[in-house]
Write a structure and sequence with these properties.
single chain, 70 residues, alpha+beta, two-stranded antiparallel sheet, binds zinc ion, nucleus
Length: 70
């Protein structure tokens, strides 16, 4: 049974703690990491890093990418 609903996105959670975690770490923070070189947005910093390395490594020096995550 899910009794807790997020007021912002409408997702339901069975535990108050789950909703609490969602609102703290997920809600409104999804895809907050925007790629500076294309419209891609990542939900996690690591995902954006992987994206940059795999998609833009040729046009961007690795040191530049690395600096973004320093
Ligand atoms: Zn939410
Ligand atoms: Zn990109």
């Amino acid at each position: 049974m899910k009794n807790f609903q997020c007021a912002d996105c409408g997702k339901w959670y069975g535990w108050k703690e789950s909703l609490y975690n969602h609102r703290n770490y997920e809600c409104g923070k999804e895809r907050q990491f925007a790629c500076p070189q294309c419209p891609y947005r990542a939900s996690r910093k690591g995902s954006l890093k992987t994206h940059l390395f795999t998609q833009h490594a040729k046009g961007t020096r690795r040191t530049v990418i690395a600096a973004m995550f320093a």
